[in-house]
Fold this protein.
Amino acid sequence: MEAPGGAEGARCHRPVVEMLDLPFLPFCILLGILGFVCVAFVSAWCQYWRGGFAWDGSTQMFNWHPVLMVTGMVVLYGAASLVYRLPASWSGPKLPWKVLHSSLALAAFTLAVLGLVAVFRFHNDHGTPNMYSLHSWLGLATILLFSCQWLAGLSTFLLPWAPAWLRGLYKPVHVFFGSTILLLAVASCVSGINEKLFFSLKNGTAQYKLLPAEAVFANTLGLLILLFGVLVLGALARPSWKRPDADASDSRQPLLAAER
């Protein structure tokens, strides 16, 4: 026997669920806007409060580090993660989408490497020790894991020598570490923002604990990055946005075997 009010409660709950069931493409547009805002915020922070940009070993060179890391490891990497959620990728061959996915990931990795160059050169030119903080450990671990992930994905899914059983076995591992790397990238960026504020806002009326305008702005940037990461991970976990023909005959077609 159905509990009193059960059917009525279900009917009331269904419109709420349908109202919150945002289609993927509008969600993707909103996420793209949020990603642009994250990049704009970190660029404005470094330009307005931290003195702008240069590539000469100065403090201005360091400012490339947060901009490149947020752009590459958060925004571009998040975009690469969602390629297979695009409805256009659900039909036809997967090969073009594999190339797009790997290209976005490679672009993200390239920006991340440039970000590392910027911070290491700045540290070395100013006699600052490298790799002593939790942020630096977490960030480097994220980059190393990302490089392994990209090479493993390239070798397994795009090049012809991996057998089908190995591709099928590795796919869930690739998906799991893809989400893990994004989570680590967000944690690295947020901890890096916090560390930079502690180092920079130490004197006078600009002390971090007094919450000057720069601190409010950079804290807001951290929250926007966190929101971006949460939304990407939520989209990846949503079953209705996953490719429905995951076992299509071409889903494991390697790149170099495409024309055979």
Q: What stands out?
A: The chain has eight helices and no strands.
